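Could you join me in thinking about how sequence relates to backbone shape in a protein? We need material for that, and I hope you will provide a protein of your own picking. Once you have written the record down, we can walk along the chain together:

…
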Amino acid sequence: MKLFKKENKDFKNDFSYLDEKNIYLDSACQSLRPEPVISALEKYYKEFNSCGERVKYKWGKITDEKVNLTREKVLDYLKLKKKDYFVSFTLNTTYGLNLILSQFDVKKAKIKEIITSNIEHNSPFLSSITFAKKNNLKRKVISRNSDGSINLNDINKNSLVVLNATSNIDGRTLKNIKEAIKDVHKKGGFIIIDAAQAMAHSKEILEKAEADAICFSAHKMYAPSLGGMVIRKDFVKYIDTSFIGGGMVDDVDLETYLLSSENKEHLYTKFESGLQAWGEIIALGEAISWLENIPKTTKETMLKNEKKIFEFFEKHGTTGEIDKNIEDRRSHKTKLHLLNYEPTSTMSFYVDGLDSHLLGEALAGEGIMVRTGYFCVHYYLDHEMHFPPLVRISLSYQNTPEQIDKLLQELEKVL
């Protein structure tokens, strides 16, 4: 089945609803939605609003067909095989990670500790804390290298490993993700990937990455607010289902029930309790098609925008602050400090002597929308690296060179 269209020739019209005065640079939080995605969601509500997997009338059959197609698109997007993986939908990445960890059978899996890294978003960082406490396990926090990779000798035997594929601080990726997955499995462990920041702009590293589970947020990949989970089929036996309700059972007696996931064709129901966000799931399918057909020139423009911002910081300040200790950072005479050591779609910085939140407000006054603070990475940015609150610029495909010029002009005024 052909899941994707040809290159999108009408890309420039996909964000025509935007006021040219508004410069949105916060896609790491949630991306804007192109017209085809908005139309897909609107079409569901207007033309076949119905409950999936519950009805026999025409609208429901259309919903079922399109939802199943989205499941196929997710696997195809990541180049993973249907015979090995299935896709479940949930609220967001955080919810997906907690669904897995809260129901994971440690004894059956023979897990001795849980491992995460120091640059994780609070989603895996906090859930790994509660997992360790609940199961009376050791928790190990490893350091990531400046390029995002991990040292494989930091992984112990029989560990449950939870890592992000792409950082929401500076866009660095888990460069040795496939080697890490093989190493974890070789050592009798399991690995869960937080792919929230990778799915839209660095999904290449996820392709054929055969982790035990991959969790992501659709709202960071130009789709509506939704979560997705790509689960290895042979991983399911370690999940002791306790979060349960409608849509997950085929039969119920007074004290017993039969899970729909006992049927291998319906494994995805193991994580889908209650009525699902059918319209949002269908719109995710449209977003994936849209992403697969981004014009080459648009991708090139985004890379140029990244490079232009990075070169600005090289000229006016310092880069690679993420590699430096606090003494080295304080020794710089320049005021402008970029954490990144290379250009990415996500870049974070601070200005000595200027509160980042005030800078964020000043930029907002010029129509420039950025994120300020610690971006839900409190431990690493605040307590380990001792950075002040930061400003984060996160680019997306709708950003133009003119918008980046405007951003840099305003930053130059600050300097």
